[in-house]
Amino acid sequence: MKGRKLMGWGVCVAILFNCSFAFAIQYIEPYLQAPKQDGMTILWWTNSSQPNSSVEYGLGNYNNTVAASNDYVSSMNLYKHEVKLNGLSTETTYNYRVQSGSTLSNSYTFKTAINRSSNFRFALLGDGRTDNSTVISRHKHMVDMAGDRGADFIIEAGDQVKAGTASHWNTLYRNIVTNSAGGSSYGSKIPYMTAVGNHEIWDGSSYDSGNLTTSMARYKAFMANPSNGSSNPNWNERYYSFKYGAATFIVLDLNNTSSNSYDNHDYLPDGSTPDWEPGSEQYNWMVNQLQQAQQDSAFTFVIAHPSPYSRGVHGSPSDTQRGYQLRALDPVWRQYGVDAVLTSHDHTVEHCLTGPAGFENDMDVNDPNNLNYLVMGNSGYSSRYAEDGWNTWMDIEGNDGPPYYTKYFYSWAGNDSLSSFWDVNIVNEGNNLWRADFQVVRSDGQIFDPFSIERTDPVPGPATVSLMVIALAGMLRRKN
Ligand SMILES: [Fe+2]
Predict the structure, then answer these.
(1) Is 371 exposed, middle or buried (0-12, 13-18, 19+ CB in 10 A)?
(2) At residue 454, what are phi and psi to the nearest 5 degrees?
């Protein structure tokens, strides 16, 4: 009897142990990266080695299984699992779940990138951060709201963590982006992509170039950004581009440069960031991407962390983390038809406009010669600074050199209970015309600064091609 009792306890303890072990190994639920028309990248993390890891997926079932990697990441003291799915159908929703040893994740769905002619929606978050429970809660709420509004993907423009430590990366992915420990489930259903911010490079106590093997190693481990082909492995994945529908997204790392005349961050040492000034590798790569985008996309969006134009403290030319030098990029962005520059860094929510001489006479946000700069530094972290003149265009010429105009310097500065994100809806209007609808969505559901830009597609749509063929056939018939 005694023996049987002991055995019973042993079974109970074993079951308990197994149960807690089973829950523990799925440390970070699966999340999505690098959406393609025929593929998707799925990553997840465990706190013990799980060589028998895989993704199960299918159309309404889980009939396909693909083995995953099982890589120990020393900077996180965790195991990373990654699968690149290929050969999928475009704009198609798949079921999926992941297996780590004997543990099966929750079941999710993902949608492959859309057809070139389809509408889509994305959310731009910035400075969501991970500082404390209040910031974490607001950041998670922004991911939830973006998902609830039907975003096909989310991009965060840097400073998604307070610091690039293992603890803050765990918080971002367990408590905010996935529901591993109370976070949003949307990171498991739609891609969540990022730009590098200075807080990703910061190791929690100081900035130094050693971060390339600590905090930035963590950034690269969590992301699966497309390669930029850089000859320097430190810079690969720190800037990248991708196409989604009729738009090209060019994501840059503009945190600092080693050129003294363009230095835009006093604390980031040379060698800790890729150079960005004209003639640098990143700049030349960017111009190439811009040229391609002009030929094959209706919209070109640039995303980076620091803001070239802002009324926040980082907008001042004398600030230690100034975006001022980045204004050197404004002419080339306008030359190549960039439609919006989406940034963060300053904890403001702001809409600036630049343009050629005289643009201030009508302040046309839809004029392709003008360029909209949208700042979002409030997707978790509270908005800072005063709110004077927040809803009228103001000339900021007195601030420094070349003039620019800003409005919607939002009025909820300092209110810790409110956060926001830019919601962008891309609409195919037919006849080769596309429209991008922008608006700020605040955490209480209020909408601010809705505006639209309309652009002609450089690639004729199927209807236009058909009309051209018919016209050509008519001309040939007439000739005959
Ligand atoms: Fe920042």
Answers:
(1) buried
(2) -120, 135
Cα-to-centroid distance, 144 and ligand 1 (Å): 23
Give the model's pLDDT for residue 64.
98
Left, alpha or beta for 269 (phi > 0: left; psi -120 to 50: alpha)?
Answer: beta
Dihedral sign computed on CA atoms, order 425, 426, 429, 435: positive
Bridge partners, 243 (sequence order): 248
- Run of H or E including 342: strand 340-343
In whole angstroms, give the CA distance from residue 175 to residue 157: 19
Of 455, 446, 450, nearest to 427 by C-alpha is: 455
Neighbours of 389 (CB within 10 A): 13
What separation in Å is there between the alpha carbon of 199 and the centre of ligand 1? 6
Q: Residue 441's beta-bridge partner residues? A: 421, 447
| Buried b or exposed e, range 352-365, using 16+ CB within 10 angstroms | bbbbeeebbeeeeb
The letter for the amino acid at 460 is P
> Can you give the pLDDT at residue 4?
36
Whether 107 contacts 70, CB under 8 Å: no
> In whole angstroms, what is the distance from residue 139 CA to residue 144 CA?
9
Q: How far is the CA of 197 from the centre of ligand 1 (A)?
A: 5
If the chain, 480 residues long, is cut into consecutive pieces of 10 residues, what is the mean pLDDT of each piece? 35 37 71 98 97 97 98 96 98 98 95 98 98 96 98 98 96 98 97 97 82 88 97 94 98 96 92 95 98 98 95 85 93 97 93 87 92 94 66 65 62 74 98 97 92 96 54 49
Query: Could you tell me the pTM of the whole model?
Result: 0.91
Whole-angstrom distance, CA of residue 212 vs CA of residue 473: 60
The full set of domains in the chain, from first to last, is: 120-463 (3.60.21.10)
Q: CB neighbours of 310 closer than 8 A, spacing ≥ 6?
A: 323, 343, 345, 346, 348, 350, 352, 375, 406
Residue 376 CB coordination number (10 Å): 30
Question: How many angstroms is it from 377 CA to the middle of ligand 1?
Answer: 9
- Sequence-separated (6 or more) residues with CB below 8 Å from residue 479: none
Tokens found for residue 149:
């509004």
Instruction: Report phi then psi at 128, rounded to 5.
Output: -65, -45
Judged by DSSP in three states, 48 sits in coil
Q: How many residues does the chain have?
A: 480
User: Which residue in the block uniquely carries the two structure tokens 């830019």?
Assistant: 422
- How many angstroms is it from 159 CA to the middle of ligand 1? 6
Query: Ligand 1 centroid to 160 CA: how many Å?
Result: 9
Which residues are close to ligand 1, an ion, with C-beta < 5 A?
A: 159, 197-198, 345
Alpha-carbon span 371 to 294, nearest angstrom? 15
Backbone angles phi, psi at 307, to 5 degrees: -100, 120
